[in-house]
Design goal:
By secondary structure, the protein is an alpha+beta fold. The protein has a single domain, classed as Mannose-Binding Protein A, Chain A (Roll), CATH 3.10.100.10. About 15% of the residues lie in helices and about 35% in strands. It has two helices and ten strands. Strands 3, 4, 5, 6, 7, 8, 9 and 10 form an eight-stranded mixed β-sheet that branches. A two-stranded antiparallel sheet has the order 1-2. Strand 1 and strand 2 form a beta hairpin. It is globular. The two termini are about 20 Å apart.
C-alpha cells in the first residue's frame, strides 16, 4: 500500500507507514533495542539510523512523527569516548542541536541519544546509555 504525502514541490508517493521528511523518508521500527542493534536493524532494511543535522530537518521530522505511539526513538548521533564531542553517523556537521532542558549530561549519563516524542514538545534529544532499549528511527534518502 502507498500513500501520497504533499510536499513543497507537489505530492510524493511513499509506502504506507512511512513519512516524507524533506528528502528523507523515515520509518520507526517496531522492536525496541539497543543503539547498536538499532543500526543493524535499519541496515537490514537498507536504511540508516537518522541524522538530523539541520533545524529545518529536526522540526519537519518532529512534526511528521506527532501522534506516533513511540515515546522515544534512537537517532544517529553518538558521543566520542575519546573527545566527548557528539557526531552524526553520516558524518554531517554537528551544529544545530535540539537538546532537551539540561541535556546532554556528562559522559557517565550516556553516549548515545534518543529523540523524545512525548507530549507536545519540540522532540528534544536526551543522552542515554547505548545499551538501553528504544525504537530505531530509520531513514532513506529519496
Amino acid at each position: 500500500l502507498w500513500q501520497i504525502k504533499d510536499g513543497r514541490r507537489g505530492g510524493h508517493l511513499t509506502p504506507l507507514g512511512w513519512m516524507l521528511v524533506l528528502v528523507k523518508v523515515t520509518k520507526i521500527l517496531q522492536e525496541a533495542e539497543s543503539w547498536q542493534e538499532s543500526i543493524r536493524s535499519c541496515k537490514n532494511q537498507t536504511l540508516d539510523l537518522i541524522s538530523l543535522p539541520s533545524e529545518a530537518l529536526q522540526k519537519q521530522t518532529c512534526q511528521n512523527l506527532r501522534g506516533n505511539d513511540a515515546k522515544q526513538v534512537w537517532i544517529g548521533t553518538r558521543r566520542s569516548s575519546l573527545t566527548g564531542d557528539w557526531y552524526w553517523l553520516d558524518e554531517s556537521d554537528f551544529n544545530d542541536t535540539n537538546w532537551a532542558g539540561s541535556e546532554p549530561g556528562d559522559v557517565s549519563e550516556g553516549q548515545c541519544a534518543v529523540m523524545s516524542l512525548e507530549g507536545d514538545g519540540d522532540c528534544g534529544w536526551k543522552d542515554r546509555n547505548c545499551c538501553e532499549d528504544a525504537r530505531p528511527l530509520c531513514y532513506a534518502i529519496l
